[in-house]
TrEMBL record:
This is Membrane protein DedA, SNARE-associated domain. The chain crosses the membrane at residues 20-39, 70-88, 156-176, 188-211. The keyword Transmembrane helix applies. It holds the Pfam family VTT_dom. Belongs to the DedA family. The keyword Heme does not apply. PANTHER family: INNER MEMBRANE PROTEIN DEDA-RELATED, INNER MEMBRANE PROTEIN YQJA. GO terms for cellular component: plasma membrane. It is a multi-pass membrane protein. It comes from Enterovibrio norvegicus DSM 15893. Residues 61-174 form the VTT domain. InterPro entries: DedA-like (IPR032818), VTT_dom (IPR032816). It comes from the Bacteria.
């Protein structure tokens, strides 16, 4: 049993499509994929897990009949939403720690009100975009747990963004077998590279914003 789990887990990690076509592996694929999606969505140390490509892979396996799309797609949505809830709960717990509260106390009140307004006003868009950025996928729900006090509102955003994310990526995966092989290969390469590209863009944006803030701070005294 352990060897079968290890083989399926390695096949999922390496996107070994042929190995996942083995009869009887569907149940293990359901279980392992649900665990991986939940962990990556809920815990920052699990950010390196290739969950975007795994969701695409599930769509492809559903298209060729290995998995049942009416079971696989809802399972992905539940796993992603539960992972976001775990991250949100971590934020709630961290917000009770005196150390974290002391950090937040150093942030100007005006900036905190701006953050709260943005999270409440653009929560759905933010969660949807965060789904495509490794690391941010778990950090943003954690931040919302620290700042958003309406749990039902968060769950609405989390479930809706998870549904959009799953149907977009797994839907593309479902279409891949019907595409010509050169196009299918290009689309697959693009989907695998997308998380890295979005992560680089997010880091570059954060660094640029930090530099601009530092430059503005240096210019104010001289003005």
């Amino acid at each position: 049993m352990f060897e079968a789990i290890q083989e399926v887990l390695v096949a999922i990690w390496h996107q070994d499509f042929n190995a996942l076509l083995t009869p009887g592996s569907a149940t293990l694929i359901y279980i392992l994929v649900a665990i991986l999606i939940s962990l990556e969505s809920g815990f920052l140390p699990a950010a390196p897990l290739p969950c975007d490509s795994i969701v695409v892979l599930v769509g492809t396996l559903s298209a060729v009949g290995v998995l049942d799309p009416f079971l696989a797609f809802p399972m992905l949505i539940i796993a992603a939403s539960m992972g976001s809830w775990l991250a949100f709960s971590q934020g709630r717990w961290l917000n009770r720690l005196p150390l974290v509260q002391s950090w937040l106390a150093k942030v100007p009140e005006k900036q905190m009100r701006t953050v709260d307004a943005l999270l409440c006003r653009h929560g759905l868009v933010a969660l949807f975009i965060a789904r495509f950025v490794p690391g941010v996928r778990s950090v943003l729900p954690m931040m919302m747990g620290m700042r958003v006090h309406e749990a039902p509102r968060f769950h609405y955003f989390a479930w809706l963004s998870a549904t959009m994310w799953v149907f977009l990526l797994s839907g593309l995966g479902y279409l891949l077998p019907s595409l010509p092989e050169p196009i299918s290969r290009l689309v697959t390469m693009g989907l695998m590279a997308a998380p890295v590209i979005t992560l680089c863009i997010a880091i570059l944006t954060a660094v640029t914003w930090r530099i601009r803030k530092a430059l503005q701070g240096n210019l104010k005294p001289s003005a």
